[in-house]
Write a structure and sequence with these properties.
By secondary structure, this protein is α/β, with parallel strands linked by helices. The protein has eight helices and 18 strands.
Length: about 425
């Protein structure tokens, strides 16, 4: 089954928590804090795999998580780092943010690409020892790893793309010039997925050709199969437009040519300027007048025309050699540049206070990390928590709303009595 779109969820590993520990050894008094840092969470990386040609595996498994970092321990031992998760995808896969559509990466090269970064490990209490704070009884929790929903979109890497109406001979052509063996039959939409074939030339060189199926009028709007597979044309360096010049389907070759070009342009305006060779197929079934009329029309528009018959091998060598010659002058296959991430403008310490009549609730998501690092049984740690509430303006807001001593204040599920 050829699948070229998939949506999955990624969760990089959370960092390990720092440890609260004190050195204890015989004959060593007041050994001091020796809690180690937490380990870093595992990253999620994507790697191109030439042995894969479809995203079908991602239809059955949609959630991927990297290993979390280990917690710190005594004797200043740092927690073990989480193992990275490597996800293999077909070469040419685009990774996009599922919500915004932003392009995160184009997996077309050989190097692994970092998609989700693991969280940093939290500091152990040994990090917080100072001459005035010699017994810190708190540590920092690990930072959470990246969590995102992504859209995978496969755009095949091919040098040459075959385009044209159904049943004009694209599958026959690629089967004659390469080792590809697509299904061939005398009815429309025989080919239901793109087919790749390697065309080898006599001078020990080769290029990749792709049969792009399902193009009809309205393909760019989702009619037929074209909307599903037009994306695979975007990377092709050269297009070969196959036209049935015999007219045995009851269509006009010139109208066919204009229709397909219009659909390519409607899908992506840049495709209208892509280098193109035109192949008049089924010449063995057409009369000379039909071929000459179509040839004159094509040449007037600046295209190079090749008279071929894919079924009988007529003119195929000339077409393939011309394609190879043209490719030698063209830039390499397009690789899409990732789009920069724009951090949303949010106040770093925004909060909201609701309630009254003895009960107040503070909504401040950024306080979650602070609360996780506070030891409620440690005086210095509680002082730090109070300073954060004061510096952020939360205490001032509570007093403005009329909080009284003994009233209950709730912050992210943690409740305490207000004391002036």
């Amino acid at each position: 089954m050829f699948i070229d779109l998939a949506k999955i969820n990624l969760k990089a590993g959370d960092g390990g928590n720092g440890a609260v520990s004190f050195h204890r050894e015989k004959y060593v008094s007041a050994g001091g804090p020796d809690g180690g840092d937490g380990g870093k969470g595992g990253d999620i990386l994507f790697v191109a795999d030439n042995n894969l040609s479809t995203l079908a595996d991602f239809r059955y498994k949609r959630k991927y998580a990297a290993q979390v970092g280990g917690n710190g321990s005594a004797k200043r031992c740092t927690g073990k780092g989480g193992e990275n998760l490597v996800i293999r995808v077909p070469r040419g896969t685009l990774v996009k943010d599922a919500q915004s559509g932003r392009l995160i990466a184009d997996i077309s090269g050989d190097d692994p690409v970092l998609i989700a970064r693991g969280g940093k490990g939290g500091w152990g209490n040994a990090r917080f020892a100072t001459p005035t704070r010699q017994i810190p009884r708190f540590a920092k929790p690990g930072r959470p790893g990246d969590k995102l929903e992504i859209q995978l979109e496969l755009k095949l890497l091919a040098d040459v793309g075959l385009v044209g109406f159904p049943n004009v001979g694209k599958s026959t052509l690629i089967s004659m010039v390469s080792q590809a063996r697509p299904e061939i039959a005398n009815y429309h939409f025989t080919t239901l997925s793109p087919v790749l074939g390697v065309v080898r030339l006599e001078q020990d060189s080769s290029f990749v050709m792709a049969d792009i199926p399902g193009l009809i009028k309205g393909a760019s709007e989702g009619i037929g199969l074209g909307h599903d597979f037009l994306r695979h044309v975007e990377r092709c360096r050269l297009l070969i437009h196959l036209v049935d010049v015999s007219g045995i389907e009851g269509r006009d070759p010139i109208t066919d040519f204009e229709t397909i070009n219009a659909e390519l342009s409607a899908f992506n305006a840049e495709l209208a300027t892509r280098p193109m060779l035109v192949a008049a197929n089924k010449c063995d079934l057409a009369d000379r007048e039909q071929i000459d009329s179509f040839g004159q029309y094509i040449r007037e528009r600046g295209y190079q025309l090749f008279e071929i018959s894919a079924a009988t091998n007529q003119g195929l060598r000339e077409l393939v050699n011309a394609a190879a010659e043209k490719l030698s002058t063209l830039p390499p296959i397009t690789q899409f540049e990732p789009e920069p991430f724009v951090q949303p403008q949010v106040e770093p310490r925004a909060f909201e206070v609701n309630g009254g009549d003895g009960y107040y609730e503070v909504d401040a998501p950024w306080l979650e990390q602070v609360l996780a690092s506070v030891n409620m049984n440690d005086y210095e740690s509680l002082q730090y928590f109070q300073r954060v509430l004061s510096q952020s303006g939360i205490l001032a807001k509570l007093e403005e709303m009329g909080v009284q001593e003994g009233d209950t204040v709730s912050i992210l599920g943690f409740e305490f009595d207000y004391i002036k």
